[in-house]
Amino acid sequence: MKFLVLMYADPAATAAMTEAERADVFARHEALHRDLAETGEMLNGAGLGYPADTTALRWRGAKPASSAGGPLTSATEQVTAYYVVECASRERAVEIARRVLDFHVVAVEVRAVHDWFGMGGE
């Protein structure tokens, strides 16, 4: 089964992290990457650009409209990174997600990925 692990953080707090905090976050993610590479569960993952650099598209009337300079929602916590994992169960995906929850990543969402292109998965 494929799952998307969405990591949420406050971009202002992320920008204010000390070098030691940043090094700790990177070290923990590198360890997770190694572990998931060994088990074959890691499919993809990346950090995302700052929400201030986002272009959001919405359907307005009969056509799309875009707005630059901000995320889709006005929440303090924004999606800042993601992993796509393939594992045996939702419980295993949640176990993986727990490893990224900390002072920096304040919320994590685990969502099933529905593969509509016949490439396997859920």
UniProtKB/TrEMBL annotation:
Belongs to the YciI family. This is YciI family protein. It comes from Yinghuangia aomiensis. Residues 1-116 form the YCII-related domain. It comes from the Bacteria. The lineage of its organism: Bacteria, Bacillati, Actinomycetota, Actinomycetes, Kitasatosporales.
